[in-house]
Structure prediction request, 67 residues.
Amino acid sequence: MRMLSLFDMDVLLRNAGAERVGEDASRKLGDILEDRAKDVVFRAKIYARHAGRNTVTREDIMLAAQT
Prediction:
């Protein structure tokens, strides 16, 4: 199930300087970002559990995003 819209990906690409954006580029960026986000959340949950918490914190996310 896609969580990030093609419109949002188009806006991201254009804000990053792309003048023209193909739908396939927007779709691929969304796939990559969703995969990366799932990986970050997975790692953040591990860090929270290791700290004895059930709540994922900002710090867990930041640490997970660095790896």
Observations:
- The longest helix spans residues 23-50.
